[in-house]
Design brief:
The protein is an alpha/beta fold and about 280 residues long. The protein folds into 2 domains: about 80 residues, Rossmann fold (3-Layer(aba) Sandwich), CATH 3.40.50.10860; about 130 residues, Rossmann fold (3-Layer(aba) Sandwich), CATH 3.40.50.720. About 40% of the residues lie in helices and about 15% in strands. The chain is built from 10 helices and 11 strands. The strands form 3 sheets. The chain has a 6-stranded parallel sheet, with helices on both faces. α2 links the parallel β2 and β3. α1 packs parallel to α10, α6 crosses α7 and α6 packs across α10. It is globular, with a radius of gyration of 19 Å. Bound molecules: NADP nicotinamide-adenine-dinucleotide phosphate. The site of NADP nicotinamide-adenine-dinucleotide phosphate has 26 residues, from α10.
Amino acid sequence: MSATVMDGKALAAKVKSEVRCKVESLSKKPGLAVILVGDDPASRVYVNGKKRDCAECGIYSEEYALPAEISQEELLDLIDVLNGREDIDGILVQLPLPKHLDERQVLLAIRPDKDVDCFHPFNVGQLMIGEDGFLPCTPAGVMRMLDEYSIDPAGKHCVIVGRSNIVGKPQAMLMLRKNATVTVCHTKTADLKAECLRADILVAAAGRAGLITGDMLKEGAMVVDVAINRNEQGRLCGDVVYEAAVERASFITPVPGGVGPMTRAMLMENTLYAAKLHGKW
Ligand code: NAP
């Protein structure tokens, strides 16, 4: 068997063009503020990508590139000002923050109705109890991709490798919502291979290149590789050994070009949703 490759890039372009269509119909444009502290090159690349996406979708964006030595108070003051601005619907603080800043306090300061990353405990709670609200971008992008390829998680066994607050845990919640039976694995999981072999849908989000080998996959499994790693040659890769997996899986996401573009597209959807919360449509 050779798997169908799920094209995250093409789907992300479709989602963004849908967002653009909606934005064009609004008299007040959605607005996103992106805060970058310090000069981490990877964070700079992500922020540039988000600004480009906003421009593509017709969303107004503002970037705050702050020096690494900024104080907690100064950062909180900026968030306070952005919280109060009507033209700014979403506020995103690019993580990680420099060590001297209290990340949790910073994320708590963002008004929940402007929390387009869905990191605020209020929004995490809404997700947990199945209420409407923001959806975390990466797990939501995974669900959208499954939907696009008519993969219904109901009744399927979904195994998620990774339990971070950003990916693994919210992914489990979204899979549960869609009636999958969910197993979440981590570094203390006793037999990772045995767990993975039970997966109809495998979501790999460990951040370990080569962790999921072909013999850990059930024949016909649907494989979603969230991870973004660099292999020994310095090339981008996921957690899954792609060449082996593509022969066993029924569906698979590539890295790059799979979940990554979908994450960015979902941020645009969340910004549009924030504008709805603020009465712009
Ligand atoms: P993280 O916070 O480092 O969490 C990694 C999780 O994987 C942890 O729960 C860890 O278990 C588990 N894990 C690590 N090694 C493992 C192993 N050998 N066996 C089983 N479980 C293992 O990372 P994250 O922020 O969730 O990100 C995960 C990956 O996704 C990274 O590669 C990141 O770059 C990528 N990512 C991609 C996107 C995208 O848009 N495509 C978005 C976000 C993240 P413990 O809890 O026991 O430590």
